[in-house]
Amino acid sequence: MRSNSHLLPLCLLTAVLLSQVCSGIKWLALSHTPASLHVNQSHHCKLLLGLVPSQAQLCRTNLDLMQTIIQAAQEVKKTCQKTFADMRWNCSSIDIPTNASKYRPDLDRGTREAAFVYALSAATISHTIARSCSSGDLRLCSCGPIPSTALEPGHRWGGCSDNVHYGLYMGSKFSDAPMKGKRPGSHANKLMHLHNNEVGRQSLRAALVMKCKCHGVSGSCSIRTCWRGLQDLREVAMDLKTKYLSATKVVHRPMGTRKQLVPKDLDVRPVRDNELVYLHSSPDFCSKNEKMGSVGTQDRQCNKTSVGSDSCDLMCCGRGYNPYSEKLVERCHCKYHWCCYVSCKKCERTVERYVCK
Length: 357
Known about the structure:
The chain has 357 residues and is an alpha+beta fold. It has 2 domains: 5-295, no CATH class; 304-356, Wnt (Wingless and Int-1), C-terminal domain (Endo-n-acetylneuraminidase fold, 2-Layer Sandwich). It has 10 helices and 11 strands. The strands form 4 sheets. A 3-stranded mixed sheet has the order 1-3-2. A 3-stranded mixed sheet has the order 5-4-6. A 3-stranded antiparallel sheet has the order 9-11-10. Helix 2 crosses helix 3 (63-83). It is globular and about 70 Å long. The termini are far apart. This is Protein Wnt.
């Protein structure tokens, strides 16, 4: 078996740098884990980036789980950037280089953007574990339990449900660990992150739906075998994006014998269980501002005909935009040949694009 010892210096250096971050999502640095590193021995846990001690301990006692968690870190980055591709803040800050000492301030200050990333991270890790259970990729779990509810005639429970219970259990142990340990950091931030983690898992629970497969003579669908499966992570992310847009700003105030998070403008009511919360306002992300974590929107592509967040007016913040032409080569004039293949020609067309000044 190929040795992974050559990875040790870089990984340990990065782990030290990342340990300077008082952030519960530094485990997302696992997305940089080399494909050549297969976590199958306890000492491999030392090679993984961004783990707090309790997460490293979870790694040592659940080695099978770590490849799934590495996959989850990669999914968080990819899903976040796709979900916000049409916004000024496009989640680019989630992809920090391996030699960076910390995340950008937009994810390290208790902002609305941090609220989304924490919620998505918590949902993704549980989603990935639940799916890995039902696909047989994890030895520690299998299919989810068969529901006890009766189905209508012609329907029966069967198949292999996603194991959401196990996914939520192990996912919460891992993603909540940084906020529950005795590590330095703002108590208000920890409360905010724990709350938003739970909002993410709540969205995941809502994404568990009944799926059915037809059986019967000549596709008559006289019988349907049904199971409970999770919707794609993209659906969960869009639900959390809606919550991001309506997130509530909170303050850390004494309530009874302890401090709690309460809505800043409506402190007569408690924080709702299904709302994302944040402590600090965000910049408008129009201009580059390293201190605030804004990379700006210069050179970002915009949609001239849109009236939404990706419109050239909103994306470019009134600075205007520059057009450019791009040639696309596409398949065209496709023809089906009996039996059984499709042949196509290649067509070239020119499209006009726009980027912000």
